Amino acid sequence: MKAPVKIIVAGIVGTSFMTLYSYYRAKKEKQQYREPELLNKLIDRNKTIDVDVSKKHAAGWVAHYGVGVLFVLSYWVLYRKALHSPGAVKVLVVGSGSAIVAVAAWKVMFSASPNPPDNNRFGYYRQLAIAHLIFTLFALATYKALGQSNKLLP
């Protein structure tokens, strides 16, 4: 299977498992931690974009999965250029780096919004970091399972 298809499939699988975890934590903690719905609220409350977006609108889902594919693409570039055959420790480091990028991006989006969605920010960022470790694990395992060319894992 060609690398672009593997990147897309791995991004979808990783994002799906991450999202399942986020929905689980949201229900357990009775907080709004569901990324696609948060993205829709941010889009809907943005005064420069004239779009009526409900919490189940496709925009948040497309953005969420699109970013997941971009994360896997960045892993692919990173592994080809620098990491080569990473083991578990390097995968954990990359997952932690992804978590830091994600938390920073959400902090920027929340602070840039004139009316950001309400949730427990500390709890959200904590679950988001764990969700990105889950994302990295499932995305890279899926990429590896799809074939060994352009491999990300040993």
Short précis:
This protein has 154 residues and is an all-alpha fold.
Question: Layout of SSEs?
Answer:
Layout: H1 3-29, H2 35-45, H3 58-83, H4 88-112, H5 121-145
Helix pairs in contact: 1-3, 1-5, 2-3, 4-5
**Radius of gyration from the alpha-carbon trace, in angstroms:** 16 Å
Low-confidence stretches: none
Percentage of residues in helical conformation: over 70%
In angstroms, what separates the terminal alpha carbons?
17 Å
Topology order in helix (H) and strand (E) letters: HHHHH
Rounded mean pLDDT score = 88
| Structural class based on helices, strands and sheet pairing | mainly alpha
Label the overall shape.
globular
| Biggest beta sheet summary | none
Strand content is under 5%
How many structural domains in the coordinates? 1
How many helices? The count is 5
Number of extended strands:
0
